[in-house]
């Protein structure tokens, strides 16, 4: 998997370089990062929990900085293992170009995944990786640009999902779900629909007799049933 991109950060290059080497800043900006410990001037250990389609896992790994040329560029290499979910490893070349009071950060990354992650399909993995990268740089830009006149940028909602990611995850879920399970789900949905219809009929009859407290009470009862069904469906 190859990725590249560039982001304009409203801060001087030296400030951006310092932030890129600050574990506290990186931990606050990396989505799902639970810990980030600097073990030497060029090495860090990290623990990150993330979800790619139907697969959610906690990855533990090490990050190494190479080819340091402060404050212009460096290469970052990392490898993480997520148990049965698989593994991910890769590297990225990061460059900082100063333009006035701003800095343009560009990167070229190559990554490899294995295990269950590799079975999800490149489109799903690529879309999720891009979404996580956008979240990181949005937070990083806000953090580094604080107090330097940086415009406010709204980060993506946690529940926002790329359409391609949603379609791919749905396809995988359907393909990997046993036929008997799908049949059971369909029967359950049919039973719920019949129960709702019967309940509506009974409530209408009761309302006609002004039973159970009248329209307001049976309306609230029907709303409660709908809420319960939605909760079960989710």
Features:
7 strands, 7-stranded antiparallel beta sheet, 234 residues, alpha+beta
Going by helix content, strand content and strand pairing, the class is alpha+beta
The strand order across the widest sheet is 1-7-6-5-4-3-2
Mean pLDDT: 74
Biggest sheet features: 7 strands, antiparallel
**What is the count of β-strands?**
7
Rg calc? 25 Å
Helix amount: 40-55%
- Give the end-to-end Cα distance, rounded to a whole number of Å: 33 Å
One letter per element, helices H and strands E, the order comes to EHHEEEEEEHHHHH
Unreliable stretches:
149-156, 210-218
Overall geometry: elongated
- Beta-strand level of the residues, as a percent range? 25-35%
Please work out how many helical segments DSSP would assign: 7
Structure in words:
45% of the residues lie in helices and 32% in strands. A seven-stranded antiparallel sheet has the order 1-7-6-5-4-3-2. About 7% of the residues have low confidence.
Compact summary:
By secondary structure, the protein is of the alpha+beta class. 45% of the residues lie in helices and 32% in strands.
Explain the layout of strands and helices.
Blueprint lengths: L1 E8 L3 H8 L2 H7 L3 E8 L2 E10 L2 E15 L3 E9 L5 E13 L2 E13 L1 H4 L2 H24 L17 H14 L2 H30 L6 H19 L1
Antiparallel strand pairs: 1-7, 2-3, 3-4, 4-5, 5-6, 6-7
Helix pairs in contact: 2-4, 4-5, 6-7
